[in-house]
Specification:
Blueprint lengths: L3 H4 L16 E8 L2 H11 L3 E4 L8 E5 L2 E8 L2 H5 L5 E7 L3 H10 L3 E9 L3 E7 L5 E7 L17 E8 L3 H12 L2 E7 L5 E7 L2 E8 L8 E7 L3 H10 L3 E8 L5 E6 L5 E6 L3
Length: 275
């Protein structure tokens, strides 16, 4: 995960509240077969992979546009025996991980892993919102001036964040807006499926929230990765052992999306400006 230093912003203070604070800055795949997962996403998304050279574990950095955007690590037998399953999690950047852990708990969330340090990266913790959706907190180490953000359309960049909220998206939005300053950009009525709330900050859309569908076992975040051409991406998923769950389909605004699982069972999503 040390490559996060090349992509994550410099640390700031709660008073200055820099642009990165309260946004997703990293994405991580826990998997039962790291080598197979690397090969799958390299073919499907086009990410490049490199070893983070962490001292006590193997951790693979996934890069897009020459910058680290996420990582992969292999679940241990002990983790699996405690119920861990393949899946993607996101890191929300905060100015003070320890303080944010206390605030999450006070707001009804759960602390799944207390604050700790990642060598050469920063301080992190694993938490869940009041509905049970799991995410990481991260306070990056101070590295001085950060590079400019990737272009939003960069292939391999996560460009949309979607929450299926246990207890309803109204309660979920109250939690996240209170913690991270997110705003409601617009709302769409989906009929029997309820309201789809598009959230963002400072007029920039970040993702959407909806009530958790009954068929979903737990509340969770889903992350949409940019690809060039959704139909070709769907064929790559099938050809490399993955399975389509939904789509390809067109969504409001003209983009095309799909949802799928990789060969180890981790859920992911893709988005493209073209079919």
């Amino acid at each position: 995960m040390t490559d996060l230093a090349t992509d994550a912003p410099a640390a700031g203070t709660a008073e200055s509240k820099p642009d990165w604070q309260g946004t997703f800055i990293w994405y991580e795949l826990m998997t039962t077969d790291e080598d197979a997962a690397i090969a799958f996403y390299r073919e499907v998304v086009g990410w490049t992979a490199s070893d983070a050279e962490q001292p006590d574990m193997r951790y693979t950095i996934l890069s897009a546009g020459g910058r680290g955007v996420g990582g992969i690590f292999q679940l241990t037998d002990e983790m699996c025996s405690h119920g861990a399953k393949p899946g993607w999690l996101g890191y929300i950047a905060v100015a003070d991980t320890d303080g944010e852990v206390a605030a999450v708990a006070a707001a009804g969330g759960k602390i799944l892993m207390p604050p700790g340090d990642i060598p050469n990266v920063g301080r992190f913790a694993l938490v869940a919102d009041p509905g049970g959706a799991v995410y990481y907190l991260l306070t990056p180490n101070d590295r001085g001036e950060a590079p400019p953000p990737l272009d939003p359309q960069t292939i391999g960049k996560v460009s949309w964040h979607e929450l299926y909220a246990e207890g309803g998206q109204e309660a979920a939005f109250a939690f996240y807006s209170g913690r991270y300053g997110w705003d409601t950009e617009t709302e769409m009525d989906m009929g029997p499926m309820g309201i789809y709330r598009i959230f963002g900050r400072d007029g920039v859309q970040m993702g959407g929230m909806m009530d958790k569908p009954a068929e979903m076992p737990v509340s969770a975040w889903n992350f949409y990765v940019n690809v060039d051409g959704i139909d070709a991406a769907a064929e790559r998923i099938r050809a490399n052992g993955g399975s389509l769950i939904m789509g390809p389909m067109e969504v409001p605004g003209g983009s095309w999306v799909l949802q799928a699982t990789d060969p180890q069972g981790a859920h992911f999503a893709l988005i493209s400006q073209t079919r």
